[in-house]
Amino acid sequence: MRAMSILGLDIGTTGVKAVLFREDGTLLGSAYEEYDLVCPRPGHLELDPLKVLSAIREVTRAAQAAAPGDPVKSVAACTLGEAAVPLGDDGRPTANAIVGFDSRGDDEASAFRRRVPNAEVFAIAGHGINSFHTLFKILWRRDHDPAVFDRTRLFTCFGDYFMHSLGIPPRTDYSSAARTLAFDIHALDWSRRILDAAGLPAELFPPPIAPGDAAGEIGETASKEFHLPRGAVVGGGLHDQPAGILGAGVQPGESMLAIGTVICLGVRLRQRPATESVMAANNLCYYPTAGERQYVSIAFNFTGGSLLKWYRDQLAGAELVEAGKRGVDPYEVITEGLPDDPTRILVLPHFTTTGTPYFDPRALGAMLGLRLTTTRKEIVKSILEGILYEIRLNAELLAEAGVEIGRYRAIGGAARSPAWMQIAADVLDRPVAVASITEGAALGAALCGAKAAGLIASAADMDAIVERVVRVERVFEPRSENARRYSDLYAIYRDVYSRTKDISHRLSGLEP
Q: Domain extents for the chain?
């Protein structure tokens, strides 16, 4: 019998990756293409759907070149949350997609909060009311950009947009739908209560689909355009963080640690949480993933790994030159030779909307503790520390909600950096396990496609494949002395946001 492969697409904020696996989960090859966020004015951040689509075409072709003898049987995507592509009557985008950490939607969220109690929304949607949700970006379009809104007939998440581009009627998977705040996570359908309160028709959204259900097959035109075999099955995918939780093999008591453009911890819940009020009060969430009545909870910082990219693009001139001479990745040069001891520089990684627990679109980043003797390597390490302090803060809030984390499973490109992982173990004061497959999100997506194609029967089969192929290659244990010192520094870090919040808001209020 001819070998078959399954393709997982990971459509992110700054790039897309296509990863090819065999049916048993063995990695065959991958390809990555980067694109830029569009910033039409300060605080406004968008993705050009056509550029994303162009990148998808490139990576689907390149990834399959790694295994020409293993034709693709199925494909599914995991995608960034909250970004919605507006489509017109002709099926083409009417504008760019506004991403979640764009500053727009704050006024709309505040007005909505006055109409509907936050607790009621959380009980329906598994999320509290916050401006990063798709719902409020759409309301901003309606109120401030009617020329686009009036020409838009459908708002699709990027997974749906990919289906649409394949000529398949778009369907929004349950987990991505939940990130819009317009979805009832219990009825598994668009919420009439929320949409009526917002004054939006449910017809603005594609029909929902369960992760792993079949959406359609690749036709002749799409086959030529995306270099995918005709007849390959396209399945409902996942929001990228639940996909990562699935693909990393995270079990209760563990947490995914995904360091990409956004840094995220993600836990798996076996049942609906009993502490919804605690979660709602701290802007935590829970929502569906693959498997009937299965849920995940995530906490995150929107700046995340993009802060190191900012350093690379703005401050790493010398490191870029050195990387070019040596023919290595610039991040390898940037993160090598970092001081072993904790720095005494506190970086508040709020270079855009904060993420959990604050969801503050007017927050600003800060670096405290700089001296004339501060070195570039100390600055780099302090950036990594600050990102992880924010994760520790969220982990403590999850613990208050009854979700304890005993170990982290790291996925993503940062998992390949021993420097990052040791700092993570020390700051979080928990072991950090690096899995043999760091592309956990793409594997989670690919398994959804495999289920859609009938190659596997259930979510339990997905777990079995992950357990078989994802091995822990290395565990970074917290070093006791560094962990103790980080705990002292973290106690100070916890006060930085509250002490600087007013100053940040006053600065944000100035005219650009």
A: 5-239
Is the CB of residue 297 less than 8 Å from the CB of residue 403? yes
Residue with tokens 């010398």: 318
**d(Cα 267, Cα 311) in Å, to the nearest integer?**
30
- C-alpha–C-alpha distance, residues 111 and 99, integer Å: 20
359 near 132, Cβ under 8 Å? yes
Give the three-state DSSP class for 267: strand
CATH number of 5-239: 3.30.420.40
Number of H helices, E strands in the chain: 19, 24
Angle (nearest 5°) at CA 300 between 298 and 303: 155
Closest by CA to 302, choosing from 256, 344, 241, 249, is 241
CA–CA separation, 260 vs 274, rounded Å? Answer: 30
Taking the C-alpha atoms of residue 385 and residue 312, their distance in angstroms, rounded to an integer, is 17
278 CB-near residues (< 8 Å, 6+ apart):
284, 400, 401, 402
Residue where the block lists tokens 């259900």: 213
Measure the CA–CA gap between 387 and 306, rounded to whole angstroms.
Answer: 10
Residue-wise pLDDT tens digits, 9-27: 999 998 999 999 999 899 9
Eight-state DSSP code of residue 327: T
Residues 63-116 have pLDDT tens digits of 998 777 789 999 999 999 999 999 999 999 999 999 998 989 999 999 999 999
Pairing of strands 263-269, 254-259: antiparallel
DSSP characters over 268-307:
EESS--S-HHHHHHTT---EE-SSTT-EEEEEEESSTTHH
CA Rg value for the chain: 22
Residue found by looking up tokens 């009621």 in the block: 120
Map tokens 């699709």 to a residue.
Answer: 156
* 369 to 132, 404, 484, 506: CA distances (angstroms): 31, 32, 19, 22
Note if the bond before 357 is cis, omega within 30 degrees: yes
